[in-house]
Amino acid sequence: MGRIAEHPILGEMKSSKEIEIIVDGKPYSALEGEMIAAALIANGIQTFRYTKHKGPRGIYCGIGRCTDCIMIVNGVPNVRTCITPVQDGMRIETQHGTGVWKRGDDHA
Amino acid sequence: MHKASVVIIGAGPAGLCAAIEAAKAGAKVLVLDENLKPGGQLFKQIHKFFGSKEHKAGTRGYEIGVELLKEAEVLNIDVWLNTEVCGIDKEKNIWAVRNGKDAVHIAAERIILATGAIENAVAFPGWTLPGVMGAGAAQTMINIHRVLPGKRVVMLGSGNVGVIVSYQLMQAGADVSAIVEASPTLGGYGVHTAKVRRAGVPFYTSHSISKVIGKEKVEAVEIVALDQQWRPINGTKKVLEADTICLAAGLSPLTELAWIAGCQFHYIPELGGHLPIHNRYMETTAAGIYVAGDITGIEEASTAMEEGMLAGINAAASLGFYSQKEKEQLSAIVWDRLDALRCGYFGQKRKTAKERMISVGKKVIG
User: Domain named FAD/NAD(P)-binding: which ranges (chain B) (predicted)?
Assistant: First the structure.
């Protein structure tokens, strides 16, 4: 777990602005433009949600198809974290069960 | 309502090449892709491609991606990202959702489906735990997002994806404890396999994963030897240290849109299962709908690009941008390159399977 700062083929990681995300109430640093899943992995977090049978889940396909990595983002459940970029101040929560959508205009 | 003469769904290697060829011919092209960035899975391919110079051999996948995007830009090809196609009807109307909220209707004269493929899963006790992921997922994490999903990896599957991603995981700083292969023989090209072997990674052929050890995440992996009927052999269990398990058990074509569009299918297991029937011009049984790339059968990015060109040339020709003679000539050139790619021990199998599809296509479509 962690970032790959140096790479034999891809070279040095290009510098990006550091921003802050809130994961389960705690602040973590993330890089502007990166996907939520990448930011979590960089911070050593690998469990993103629990199923309704309390089974832990993390990333699986990494390209937005399998929905294993879904979390609650800014109050919206079932957000695919592997294809959703972070934003400064974003609130990200571990999802338990299938998630409940709010009604009306509460969607982000 | 929007209008375009050729709408291409999928901005990966096949879709981009189709777009470039159709635009070069003079068609008004629109490319739709559900992702935030174009290029499909090309940008995670950091290894050098095979083939001859015309196939961009020796060039790394992501460099090819950059070249294709540049070409598309020069040709002023319209690319709509973050656009998910939900429906296609027989009159070639497309319904899509843009940016997760705006419903759009596009009337297309021709449609090229270049939707690609998804990795196959392998189920064993514990396969849903955090730490078990597709080999392509690990590749996306390390090469696109530049994060390491684990430190000690066991790879299941020794085909090209398995061995290439193993090597790339090592380049990214991980240890690969083993490559486990259920078949008695290794599946990848010798050059990739040898590289991993030289780096000291052990191969366990005729072995599979029997279970994951760990309650909340992967803590270790239990493997077991298989007999000739691929049944576990008692007393051969062995525990390997790992925090990550990558599954490289092949891919399946993403054919949903071809089903929705009413295309007829044919079953070819060697190419990934049920596939939209198509002829040598990449036309399907649904009039005006073409296919290219992994949706037509699992192959490689290099063949996907050639098929994309074929589809682009022929979609444009059917709109009158090429004469019958030009269309045949241009198609023949691409077919020569495809034949050159589908050779050798691995390529020959794909070539034979593809020929079966083309002969079905000829019968059904013409």
Answer: 5-308
Kindly give the residue spans of alpha helices, DSSP state H, lying in A11-75.
36-42
Contact B301, B8 (CB under 8 A): no
* Same domain membership, residue B91 and residue B155: no
Residues of B in contact with A5 (CB under 8 A): 146
Establish if B137 touches chain A: CB-CB under 8 angstroms: yes
B176: which DSSP letter?
A: E
Question: Mutation test of the interface with chain B: which of A1, A4, A47, A79, choosing the one with the most B Cβ atoms within 10 A?
Answer: A4
A46 touches chain B (CB under 8 A): yes
**CB–CB contact A46 B149 (8 Å):** yes
Q: Are A31 and A37 in contact (CB under 8 A)?
A: no
**Does one domain contain both B228 and B279?**
no
ipTM for the predicted complex comes to 0.94
Taking CA atoms, A87 is separated from A34, A73, A83, in Å, by 9, 10, 13
- Whether A34 contacts chain B with CB within 8 A: yes
DSSP A68: T
Helix axes B61-74, B301-318, angle to 10 degrees: 20
Note if the pTM is more than 0.90: yes
User: What is the CB-side half-sphere exposure of residue B303 using CA atoms within 13 A?
Assistant: 22
- CA dist B39 to A63, A85, B27, B44, Å? 13, 18, 21, 9
DSSP letter at A103 equals P
Q: Is the pLDDT of residue B304 over 60?
A: yes
Of the residues B224, B247, B270, the one at which a domain ends:
B247
CATH architecture of residue range(s) A16-95? Roll (3.10)
Q: Does A58 touch chain B (CB under 8 A)?
A: yes
What number of other Cβ atoms are within 10 A of residue B337's Cβ? 19
Count of structural domains within chain B? 2
Partner-chain contact A38 B141, CB within 8 Å: yes
Which tokens sit at B243? 């925090």
| pLDDT by residue, tens only, chain A of 108 residues | 789 998 998 999 888 999 999 999 999 999 999 999 999 999 999 999 999 999 999 999 999 999 999 999 999 999 999 999 999 999 999 999 999 887 766 554
Q: Where are the beta strands (DSSP E) in A1-108?
A: 18-23, 26-31, 49-50, 56-57, 70-73, 76-80, 91-93, 95-96
Instruction: Output the average pLDDT for chain B.
Output: 95
CA A43 to chain centre: 11
